[in-house]
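Crash report, auto-generated. Payload:
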Amino acid sequence: MSRTADASEGLDETAMGGGPLVVGGITLASRLVVGTGKYATYADMARSLDASGTDCVTVAVRRERLLNAAGENILDHLDASRYALLPNTAGCFSADDAVRVARLGRELLRDMGSATSEWVKLEVLGDTKTLLPDPVGTLAATEKLVSEGFTVLVYTSDDPVIAKRLKDLGAASVMPAGSPIGSGQGILNPNNLRICLEYLKDGDPAYPVIVDAGVGTASDVAAAMELGADGVLLNTAIAHAQDPVRMAVAMKAACVAGRLAFLSGRIPRRLYATASSPDEGRIVQPT
Amino acid sequence: MERDSVDADVSVTVNGSHRPVPAGVTLESLVAMLGFSGRPVAVEVDGEVVSRASLSSRHLAGGERIEIVTFVGGG
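Recovered output after restart:
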């Protein structure tokens, strides 16, 4: 072997070809985008993000607390020079609300001088129980935000038709869900994801498709990457693991493993066995 | 000092709560009164973002709805 990777720190798929992930003109060193929600403490969050190897993290926009202005801010624990910040519109159930929240996130990032100040992870949700996206509102908000100059990374279902329409409206990345947000069900419909990838990358192989939501464990990340996704966005699977830091390392390794497997070209599935050892020279014959 | 109409309190809504503020107070002053100066916040009045650079020149009127937001953890 010319190269060994015996620790996750040594895992780097870009060193083995395939090139880095580029979204909206910005190159990301890691193909994992990691959420910052639901950690027990900011210190747990910071350690987990570090262990995941990510350089792009999502944040939410919420009211500043009026009664506890002395409280810590998440930005005290996120190095904005290390992590590209991707503000989301989580909790918005209409296109208008999502556009409003996106503008506030942009203002926060502009004030920080962030390189990703025009980025938004657009979510327009249809239902509080499933948190599935509202496709009509998502299309409307994407069109509006693109017209306002946003770099829109859009959360959507695994529906290939909607995915294609979002790309046609100018989304910088389409992010189909593997399964409902926080559900830990993994990739429920790999066939739909395959079709999403085929449609979105038709004539445009570098177009970034990031599987967003539903990851439960490392194999889900690997599965998404093996299908040819350019990245995976996850939060709960790390934040609510019993050992978030260790799980973050697992996710990092799975992401690289899945990417390398995709680039390597897997063997086709066959119904019957094919022997790995030669038939020739056997001292016995099959009965 | 004699109070004039500029000094009278009016009611605005800040992050969903009614709050008396001096009429004509600037957003920059409101942010300072709430202890948010120097903190990463973005400000919206009646649904429109007011840029950081404009906070000092934006005067508040009674009935306006102000949102002061920041980043929190999220996925």
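Post-recovery validation: The first helix of chain A runs from residue 42 to 52.
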